[in-house]
Amino acid sequence: MPDRIKDILVENLEVTPHEVYRLRPPLGLSHLAVLMKVPRPDLKDLPLHPASPIGEDENDDLYAAIRRNDIILHHPYDSFAPVVQFIRSAARDPNVLAIKQTLYRIGKESPLVPLFIEAAENGKQVAVLVELKARFDEENNIGWAKQLERAGIHVVYGLVGLKTHAKMALVVRREQDGIRRYVHLGTGNYNPVTAKIYTDISLFTCRDDITADAVEVFNFLTGYSNRDTYRKLAVAPVNLRERLTALIDREISHAKAGTSAQLIFKMNSLTDTKMIEKLYEASRAGVSIDLIVRGICCLRPGKKGASENIRVISIVGRFLEHSRVFYFANGGEPEVHCGSADLMGRNLDHRVELVFPVEDRRLTAKIMKEVLVTALADRSRSRVLGEDGSYTRAEPTIPEKPDSQQVILRSRVRIPSQKPPVPREAPAQG
Question: Which of 62, 72, 183, 306 sits between 20 and 30 A of 96, alpha carbons compared?
Answer without folding.
Answer: 72
